[in-house]
Design brief:
It is globular and about 55 Å long. By secondary structure, the protein is of the alpha/beta class. Helix 4 links the parallel strand 4 and strand 5. The strands form four sheets. It has a seven-stranded parallel β-sheet with strand order 3-2-1-4-5-6-11, sandwiched between helices. It is built from 13 helices and 13 strands. The longest helix has 19 residues. It has a domain of about 190 residues: NAD(P)-binding Rossmann-like Domain (Rossmann fold, 3-Layer(aba) Sandwich), CATH 3.40.50.720.
Length: about 325
Amino acid sequence: MNERLVLLSGATGYIGGRLLKALEAQGRRVRCLARHPEFLCRRVAAGTEVVAGDVTDAASLAPAFRGVDTAVYLVHSMQHGSAFAGRDREAARCFSAAARAAGVRRLLYLGGLGDDRQVLSDHLRSRHEVGEVLRAAGVPVLEFRASIILGSGSLSFELIRALVERLPAMITPRWVEVIAQPIAIEDVLAYLLAGLDLPLPEHRLFEIGGADRVSYGDIMREYARQRGLKRLMLPVPVLTPKLSSLWLGLVTPVYAPVGRILVDSLRHETVVRDPAALDVFPVRPRGIREAIAAALRNEDHEFAQTRWSDALSAVRPRRDWGERALATAWWTRELCR
């Protein structure tokens, strides 16, 4: 058993929930930080600790960091709508300050790919800013930046699945042809696990992606191929982010605030420009065909192991059919103007 204690934040989320199981399978000592420990306690192994704490409340963090070697930061506030960036900034500041005060040896953070030379969306800019705030505290930070993550229960996969399964013909905005480098959840976890043991005397940043560079349309077409579905995509030159996010909200499980933030980021290419991760880590990421096949195998079970909406379910209730009908009428009116 590895005796070094790992503090995991975001264990109720999609990535954090998967990483928790992987850490436990490796016999790591794990302590989970949770605002509502009662929700998480029944989902952890017998030897895993669960402690109460809020990343935006500095006073609550000191007990959680006691004796910690490595802290993993997997917190995101997209469910708070337009206020998410400020909340994420403050959370990262509190978390990294507590880590420094406790003498933590390293921080591990998963952010998002995006070219800093461009004017990035609020979402991607915030993801990069969180990494900067974590580094500012002085504790060595190992940051991974990933493109969209494909796995059963992930936001990206569920969005693609819902669109392709529900719409035989799609009117697609321009972002459907933007290039990404999707990575399988299994490969993301492999990078995170390997990062726990990487010698880290100073900050390091690695871009990670799958073996293929493809458009979002290519991903949907590959999903359709594997499901034996024939789908028609009809591109349109203009579909505003507001309309596009509402379109996603009508036909996918994406909550409206999350959808609007997500769509604004889809206009950016998210590809690996620095392949250093392939030299430093033993991970050899799979391509899109293998990633989707693995996701489908797990999605065919009654429930995925964890889902992106686990951390949101208590924040925003499901819309009723009356609200959905009103939203549909509004969207149709705006599109036809």
